[in-house]
User: Fold this.
Amino acid sequence: CHGGDSKDTLVTIHGLPASFESNTSYNLSITVESSVAEHEENHQGGFRLTVTGDGIVAFENTSQSQFLNDGWTHQNNGTYQRMWNFTWTSSETSTDPVEFIVHGNAVNGNELSSGDLWNSFGQAIGHVDNPLTPVQPVFVMCLVQVTYLVTISDS
Assistant:
């Protein structure tokens, strides 16, 4: 794994609406901001995104991202940055809430886990016609790290 979870690393999905319309596309970006220095010629970061609920996710650059084990993650050539753009298109028929969880890491490019930091972000959004306030996602940093390791070892 890459170092430990840290408040010095901020992971965000920019562009998520407060509520969503049916059959609408939203341009979103995963960003990782960190105290870990970026080195232009080395690996800088990575992510793991899961979306629970209906809709379609399409990453802008498919050579830098992939669908793997029920979620999206970076590919090796997608680690030379700390921002990844994607589009989420909501379902035509479902008004159920949708939950987005992303785990992001900031790496220092030394090819080791030492000096790397990660954190997570989660948000649930409801449909405009579904007035129920969705429960925001809850996750535990240490369990997320273990789950991520198991996922990688299974592939």
About this structure: Residues 141-155 have pLDDT under 50 and may be disordered.
